[in-house]
Write a structure and sequence with these properties.
The protein is mainly α. Helix content is about 75%, strand content about 0%. The protein has three helices and no strands. The longest helix is centred in the C-terminal third of the chain and has 29 residues.
Length: about 100
C-alpha cells in the first residue's frame, strides 16, 4: 500500500487555504466570504489529517472534530446574517448591507 507523502498533503492544504483566503478577501458578497472561510477550514482539516496519519496518532483527528464544529457554527452565523438581511428589508447579500447590525 502506497502512502502519500506529508509534503504533498500539506501542499494541497496550502493551495486550498490560499484559494479560500483570496476568495474571502476579494469578495463583497457575504455568501462568497463564508465560502472562502469554509475553504480555509477544510484546508486546516486536511493538514490535521495528514499530520495525524504521518505521525501515527489520533490528535489530528480530534482537532478535525473541533474544526467541523467551528464550520457548523460559521454556517449557522451565515444563515442568521442572511435571514436578518431579508427581514430588515435590505434584501441583499452585499457586505455593505450589514452596517446596521450595531443595534441602533
Amino acid at each position: 500500500m502506497m502512502q502519500v507523502p506529508l509534503s504533498h498533503v500539506l501542499a494541497v492544504a496550502a493551495l486550498l487555504f490560499t484559494i479560500g483566503a483570496v476568495c474571502a478577501a476579494s469578495r463583497r458578497n457575504v455568501l462568497m466570504i463564508l465560502v472562502g472561510v469554509e475553504f480555509m477550514l477544510t484546508a486546516a482539516s486536511i493538514a490535521f489529517a495528514g499530520g495525524a496519519l504521518a505521525h501515527g496518532n489520533l490528535d489530528g483527528q480530534a482537532a478535525i472534530i473541533l474544526v467541523m464544529g467551528l464550520a457548523a457554527a460559521e454556517a449557522a452565523l451565515g444563515l442568521a446574517l442572511l435571514v436578518h438581511a431579508r427581514r430588515s428589508g435590505a434584501g441583499s447579500a452585499a457586505i455593505d448591507a450589514y452596517n446596521r447590525l450595531s443595534g441602533e
